[in-house]
Amino acid sequence: xxxxxxxxxxxxxxxxxxxxxxxxxxxxxxxxxxxxxxxxxxxxxxxxxxxxxxxxxxxxxxxxxxxxxxxxxxxxxxxxxxxxxxxxxxxxxxxxxxxxxxxxxxxxxxxxxxxxxxxxxxxxxxxxxxxxxxxxxxxxxxxxxxxxxxxxxxxxxxxxxxxxxxxxxxxxxxxxxxxxxxxxx
Length: 185
Description:
With 185 residues, the protein is mostly helical. It is 69% helix and 0% strand. The protein is elongated, with a radius of gyration of 28 Å. Keywords: Membrane, Transmembrane, Transmembrane helix.
């Protein structure tokens, strides 16, 4: 037993549809479909890693801009209140603090971090589902594997790209309520 005929590399000749894997057209179709599932799992693993790295980057950006802004605001307030001669340095520190705060608000690092975390979880969910399909549906038959592959492709299409990360963070507009119906004549 070489392990080359089955979708997971298991023993050949034990196809879910009763035919010998790798020998007939059904076995070839199973092999091709299983390979597509493997490619989706690999793509999902890479996507999850990328989203994780981006999430870490935006978390670091949020901390690097937010923490100095808070510290500088506190120091400038204390310096400004301590003595009349320290008002100019306090004003400079306040301007620096405002700049850090504005940069953090402009970049929306916290929203980008959360969006990338959601993307990472979506990619991990897709990878897990692909692995389960390889473990189960790959032995059920060609039609079951095809149906599962179509579902995987739909899941992959639902994962937002990095260009759409912030678009999902914006809440959708509220629908305009319909005009009330008159109660009487």
